[in-house]
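Protein in question quoted in full.
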Amino acid sequence: MMPYADNLEHLLDELARIDRLIRIYFEVFWADPSEPMDEFRGLYISEAEISALLNSGNFGTDSKKLPDSETEKLEEMRRDIDTRKIETLIYGKELRLQTLSELFSLDPFEVYVLLIGLAPELDLKYEKVYSYLQNDVTRKRPGVDLALNLLCQTAEEKIKARAYFSRESPLVKNCLIYLEGKETGGNSEGQQSLLSAHIKIDERIIDFLLGFDEPDPRIRDFSYIMETKRSFEGLVLPEGLKNRLKDSVSWHILNKAPLKFFFEGPEGSGKQIAAEAACTDLGTDLFIVDSRALLKSRFPEIVTLVLRESLLQDSALYLENFDSLLADNETEIKETEIPVKNLLQDLRNFPKEVFLAGRRFSERREDLINNGFLPFSFPLPPYLLRKKLWESCLEGNCILSEDIDLKELAGKFRFTGGQIKKVVSTAREIARAKNPDVPALSAEILYESCKVRSNQKLSGLAVKISPHYSWEDIVLPKDTLEQLKEVCNFVKYRGTVYSDWGFEKKLSLGKGLNVLFSGPSGTGKTMAAEILAREVRLDLYKIDLSSIVSKYIGETEKNLNKIFREAETSNAILFFDEADALFGKRSEVKDAHDRYANIETAYLLQKMEEHEGTVILASNFRKNMDDAFLRRLHFTIEFQVPDEKSRELIWRHTFPVETPLEDEVNFVFLSKFKLTGGNIKNIALSASFLAAGGSGRVGMEQIIRATKREYQKIGKLFTEADFGEYASYLK
């Protein structure tokens, strides 16, 4: 017997058998004298019809015994179809009805129910036929009762067959059919009986049977199919991780067991590309779903559609952001707790490969492992791997300027591979916008793109400072300037020293940079921090202490944890001003408050050691700093009150070149005042406003008057003699 030419020919053959079954049932129904024929059948109920129903005698008489000859004919059709199916499958052709039956373990009865429901979707004549057979012109779809009458010969068979329409049956559980008019919830108001419910085939199942592969529109917005082409050899991942993945995939292929992995790590750390490579070895595509969308949907139903789609697409399932479904502690709202537990059990028994991906699974790791999932951690790539990723991503049609230093980029920006790829893509777009004909990537463009792609959430916890100062703007002793430049070198060359020169192997913690700026207010600590940030081309965030320190026990640690957690991916410098308020000496324990204050201090020590970025602490009094902190600092830079010569330079540098200064301004005289740079800046600004509201030029009169106000503000005593020949301006 010839195999089927295609899927549609087989489907039409199956429907032809259903058509014959309906025709035979109709003929038996027509020939039954207990069912009077009436041209108005289904529009009203006659007395004769009621009488026939009441006098029918036995329970379940709607079941019709088919003639033996017709039964044999139907059986012959079934045998022919099965023979052609086997021949077709031998040739490797797919028959969708057979595939659906295998995917959801459907028996012949359930397949016939599908075909009965499919008939009116392909030919509207069946709407009229079903309406007539069900004695109701409004019932154009087959009811459960009609399906049972068509497929069952006795009342006993009908009762047993009701199980095919239960909530846990393959047809209903997998949303292959819907029972319209049959409520599935707890509210039974207006609910029809099971026999009265209509059978509606799911639209996605209809499309599948007809050979269409577009994903279900109900989940299309947060899912997509990816054709996998990557190989493990092309992945830039730590060798140990890559080898473990390859070995696990090989074991599962050898043992013909579906993969069950959960990947945890930061965004862009290689989780998805690793799943792609695994699927390439398995010879299957990847169905990617954003798990966060499940929280906004009808959870159980959408999960069913997602799992069903993975089966229909014959693809592995990749649930990204899966950790968003998992509560990490008892204080969190667990609205999805029970559904997620059920989901994990369903995934455990799911016949396809499953990858769960997220940032952290924390306390739920044990649940996942108990459900058969193997854990894989994807850390931030180390320096050498980041450098390799930069080199790989920068290969292309853009010209690279000579000022690009990949060692510096890899050392300063702790990006994942995915983030580096996005940075380079953004940089290329900027370069093309600036020069479409000859797009050239410069260090400036790359740094700009790096900052854009860095985590900006710190701005909700700290104040982002845009550096404006350069080395020419600050006046400091030579040794202090040299120390600041050494700090810059630490940031620039940390990758070389730690990775290339092997110091990373000697250190488990303390790989970041912790710097202390100490000295009186106004001596240039904040300005120096801005200059450092500008020099190394990193963002600078000034921590708002008022939003950090809390009188409530545990709140300060929680706030600090948020800062350091966001700082992990911000690639920015943290600047704690007046840090002695937080990092002060641990006190002797006299009461509970002292004990918790010491806990806060110990916690800060821990977070600073773990942090691999740059932290600058500014303190007015170094003696207030805890010795434990001082031991963990890489640099301690003292900012002293400037001497007379330095103050003269500060005065000269403070006024912008655009400021209209009188020639009479005596900077040598002004340097006699023992003020800090911050005081001098305040005086210069006040004097400029006085001049703007008066003569329009800044002279000694405005500066002397502004100096007087600054002395009054800071509570410093002065006499007219201190102002010498300019004392008259005080009046």
